[in-house]
Amino acid sequence: MIVPQLPRIFLSPPHMSGREQNYINAAFETNWIAPLGPNVDGFEKELAAYVGVKGAAALSSGTAAIHLALQLLDVQARDRVFCSTLTFVASANPIVYEGAEPIFIDSEPKTWNMSPDALERAFIDAEQEGWLPKAVIVVNLYGQSAKMDELLAICDRYGVPVIEDAAESLGAEYKGKKSGTFGKFGVFSFNGNKIITTSGGGMLVSNDKEALHKARFLATQARDPAPHYQHSEVGYNYRMSNILAGVGRAQLEVLDERVAARRAIFKHYMEAFGEIDGFEFMPELKGTLHNRWLTTLTVDREKLGVSPIELIEALAEENIEARPVWKPLHLQPLFEGTAYYSHGEGRSVSDELFKNGLCLPSGSNMTEEQQQRVIDKVKETVKVKAGSL
Ligand SMILES: *Cc1c(COP(=O)(O)O)cnc(C)c1O
Which atom of ligand 1 is nearest to the CA of 190? Predict the structure, then answer.
């Protein structure tokens, strides 16, 4: 007998508004199909205005934006870059593209983001050895801003610029200011799973308009001003297409609605699981607005009799996609042997979060009924496992 499966619930699927087609049609009607064009210019201006910075450069991905930020900060072979360890590999890969060396910094428990204590120790060691990193990449995980005041104070003291990887935190805030606007450069991603999407794309933002001008130059094969094709530097093909930028403009119009929807889903989960001793949701630091891109929580095996992986497997049986928390980069085979600074001597917060963390489906287009399917399955699994102890 074939058991009919309920429709799949994805972790974070795209959520179109219906207005995207208008911008795409405009691009087709004017034949602005090539990269660049009015949608790209419009998307850059609108996003810069939304987050409150002087300018933005629309690119083919968030990874490309990080890569260009490193280039603009003159990161070269054998330079060192401090980077959050608890993140997607794309935060650190561009360091390797440049032949530079990443040094990973642990999380702290209040934001799950870069630990000021660990960062401070990394700087002290570096200074004693007679070098400084060229840049620090601070990630805002799952839509929660890092402790920016503390982290920036340390970086400023050493005169080292910050790249804010805000790929997951578009629409979030820190002390009333939009996430992604705290460093020398901010990076956003419009990959298919992010809070708004262009199917693929990214944005580099900054208050340094000259640097953004250079970013656009590098992103279009570094072509010198000449009637023929002349090049004095290595460039990239990193610009966003005018069609995809049109999708981005329409998505940006509904960003605040998307943040509200994801926060409502988080609230629903929290209310449903609030009574269960052993679940702990990712905190929202006082004075910040978490966009709740993904609802994440830790699972206490002792109390609940179930591990995150067992919950993920149970949800998969119901055609529901859930995931562990990012595997820290200092634990990745790719980065074996890389230097790492933990939050406390003998305590690695990111290791704990990876071991115990769980990401629940959080798409802004999830129906109440779908949310209930997730909640019911989680509750049932916990009950069965706890009962069988
Ligand atoms: C998605 C993501 C990126 C990369 O963005 P792409 O647009 O997929 O290249 C970088 N950093 C973090 C933290 C991300 O979640």
Answer: 7
